[in-house]
Amino acid sequence: MTSSSSEVRDPATCAALSEFRMHHVDLELEVQMAQRRVAGVATLSVRRLEAGAAAARLRLDVFHLVIHSVCVALPEEDTIAAQWSVQPFTTFGDALEVELPDELAQANAFELTIRYETDPRSPGVCWLEKEQTAGKKLPFMYTQGQEVLNRSLFPCHDSPSVRVTYTASVIVPNELVCVMSAKLCDVEDYVPESEDGGKEDALPTKKKFTFEMKQSIPVYLVAMAVGDLVEAEVGPRSSIWTEPCMIEAAIKEFDGVLEEYLAIGERLFGDYLWERYDMLVMPPSFPYGGMENPRLTFVSPCTIAGDKSLVSSTCATTWCSS
């Protein structure tokens, strides 16, 4: 707390959160497994707060992102190219500084569209060789945003005090599946456009997954995984996702028990607000016990203990951490 202001700042973010706050993000991503890269466009919906009435510069958290362009726009209007630069901030992130043009000087709401890509050093984007998976057939990718690592997945106000809704479309190789901490809305074959703007004639080699999270969540809980995944229903509002070679053991471990613990949690803590409680059983090289993302908890394969004894803690955490 400074002597001139009662504002309490989050030291882990470069953003002046008393001036601007993002409240929605739309992600258009392509996961390029061979290059260990995610190429994307992030469109951030931003509100100008009272303390930022005269502010002409906005700062976003980034880390090991290659920024290609930044545009700004009023809602539903054409974009304008913005001046930007990446400045040092701390050992775990940099500041993407965006100069707001005069057209936005009085705007209380506007959008930032940033074209970028990750690089292989991005710490929140984790890549596994096929040998590191259970099936040892296909590579795997997952994100780990906690505590402030989603700035290496997309530019953002990377503070737990900032809550956002989000939508995403994710293009992946045809043999892989994408899951996120959001509702899966659609899956379709993806055929890229040819140079003349039409569709290429070749058979599709990629798929596009579309997601939506209508409830606001802290930025670090935007989560994604891509791999050789299959799904099995284990309750009226729960599914298990895992590699094909682990699905039978996962069904045996979790069938019926997730709903049992959800019902107990609701009696103790109130309604479960996320509609779905799904689990992704991660590959053996996953270095954490679990990550309780909304709608989709990432868990270690060690959770498959054979006696259904390690489920309760991950269920309980969903009432406390999201």
Instruction: Name the overall outline.
Output: globular
- Detail the poorly predicted runs: 1-5
- How far is it from the N-terminal to the C-terminal residue, by CA? 26 Å
Series of secondary-structure elements, N-terminal to C-terminal: EEEEEEEEEEEEEEEEEHHEEEH
Reported for the largest beta sheet, the result is: 8 strands, mixed
What average pLDDT do the residues reach? 93
Question: Tally the helices: what do you get?
Answer: 3
Give the strand order, joined by hyphens, for the main sheet.
5-4-8-2-1-11-14-13
Cα Rg? 21 Å
Domain Peptidase M1 membrane alanine aminopeptidase: 264-312
Family: Belongs to the peptidase M1 family.
Domain Aminopeptidase N-like N-terminal: 24-179
GO biological process, one term: proteolysis
